[in-house]
Specification:
Elements lengths: L6 E6 L3 H16 L3 E2 L8 E6 L4 H15 L12 E6 L6 H7 L5 E2 L2 H5 L15 E5 L1 E2 L10 H5 L3 E2 L2 H13 L4 E5 L12 H10 L10 H10 L6 E5 L8 H6 L8 E3 L7 H6 L6 H14 L4 E8 L6 H14 L3 E6 L17 H16 L8
Parallel strand pairs: 1-2, 1-3, 3-4, 4-5, 6-9, 9-10, 11-12, 12-13
Antiparallel strand pairs: 7-8
Helix pairs in contact: 12-13
This protein binds S-adenosyl-L-homocysteine and iron/sulfur cluster (SF4).
Length: 374
């Protein structure tokens, strides 16, 4: 009997923000009366939510589209589905995408699913008792290697009350843990007016000397929600982690894991990456955090083989890792991204050398991490 519902299937690549976007894309389909398909061959539309942070992530998408559109006949009987590409790869000019992916049926920006703010849409989650909660879109930082500001546009905070309502609603539905998502959560609401922040302090009975930063205020208000057990957040950057955010991180429900990408331990590389801090400032910051919150664990992101990174500069990153005592590190080999500032530098560290540097850090940080963290 033919299925009376239209069905969608979503495949997600990349970061947690993409996971959260996919949950909202699912919500958008469900609101139209569609149902989830268990596999692509049961679907009318297959949506691929793409990542562009590194070339390898894009290559995987190219492979998937090819497999979906030209599978061996005996393998998938139905290939009538429409393949729709969305997410960060759509930062490439459409003509280039069509040339690279001639088999894809449609290219659709996330905003074309939802209109201007994707965050208003109801998410469909299949994640047990934990929920991703985006608190902002985009990024204003323009780190030289990074495609995110081009792919996701400028920073835009989600309204404060909307986040609180969503979390309260999640708790009512049985969720116990939330992870707040943004490219740099420290700067959430940085442009809120003083009077708006004051009105929030009054509304939520927060003492004015506890906090001035909207993100710290958000943590304080969420910490008061009965039934919520744990609040995590991703990502914080080292240059604007203010004292009142550190104070708010001591709250009982706030996770004792802080993700604080350093990217490099060399000042010259950091400068060329357009990251506004030095290795020493980073070390001082994490020492202060560890002093204030003794049971905190700190994780990081590192890029090896940034253009012109010398052996000596790489060794500064090794030194930093030795001093920092990271609980874990996501180590990436530099991948040139068209359109970014670093794209004009020569990608001159050979792959074999990037891999060697990657292995050294992987061994140093991730092989000795405590067994209880994945
Ligand atoms: N907003 C977050 C996440 C950015 S993307 C942040 O500021 O940290 C996630 C990680 O991908 C980055 O931290 C970086 O380590 C890595 N990354 C980004 N662009 C890259 C590139 N061109 N090549 C290799 N790794 C990259
Ligand atoms: Fe990319 Fe830097 Fe923005 Fe993170 S802060 S998303 S690394 S530009």
């Amino acid at each position: 009997m033919p299925d009376k519902f239209k069905r969608y299937y979503i495949r997600t690549y990349g970061c947690q923000m993409n996971e959260a976007d996919s949950e909202r894309i699912a919500g958008w389909y469900e609101a139209k009366g569609w149902k989830a398909a268990k596999s692509p061959e049961e679907a009318d539309e297959v949506i691929i939510n793409t990542c562009s942070v590194r070339q390898t992530a894009e290559d995987r998408v190219l492979g998937l589209v090819k497999n979906l559109k030209t599978p061996p006949k005996y393998y998938i009987p139905n290939t009538k589905y429409k393949v729709i590409l969305t997410g960060c790869m759509l930062y490439h000019p459409l003509a280039d995408l069509k040339k690279k992916l001639p088999l894809a049926d449609e290219f659709k920006k996330i905003s074309e699913f939802f209109g201007n703010s994707q965050l208003d849409n109801l998410a469909i989650r299949n994640s047990g008792s934990h929920a991703w909660v985006p608190i902002m879109e985009g990024c204003n930082n323009f780190c030289a290697y990074c495609v995110v500001p081009y792919a996701r546009g400028r920073e835009k905070p989600r309204p404060f009350e909307e986040i609180i309502c969503e979390v309260k609603e999640l708790v009512k539905r049985g969720y116990k843990e939330v992870t707040l998502l943004g490219q740099n959560v420290n700067s959430y609401g940085r442009d809120f007016s003083v009077s708006y922040v004051k009105s929030l302090l009054l509304l939520y009975h927060i003492l004015i000397y506890d906090t001035q930063t909207p993100f710290a205020l958000l943590l304080r208000v969420l910490n008061k929600i009965g039934g919520l057990r744990k609040i995590s957040f991703l990502t914080s950057n080292p240059w604007d982690l203010s004292d009142d955010i550190i104070e708010a991180m001591k709250l009982s429900k706030v996770d004792r894991y802080l993700h604080l990408p350093v990217q490099s331990g060399d000042d010259e590389v950091l400068r060329r990456m357009n990251r506004p801090y030095t290795a020493l400032q980073y070390i001082k910051l994490i020492k202060r955090i560890k002093k204030e919150i003794p049971d905190i664990e700190i994780g990081t992101d590192i890029i090896v083989g940034f253009p012109e990174e010398t052996e000596e500069q790489f060794k500064h990153t090794v030194d930093l890792c030795e001093r920092a005592g990271f609980a874990k590190a996501y180590i990436a080999m530099y991948s040139p991204r068209p359109g970014t500032a670093a794209y004009k530098f020569k990608d001159d560290v050979p792959y074999s050398e990037k891999k060697r540097r990657w292995r050294i850090l992987e061994e140093l940080v991730n092989k000795k991490r405590p067994a209880n963290r994945s």
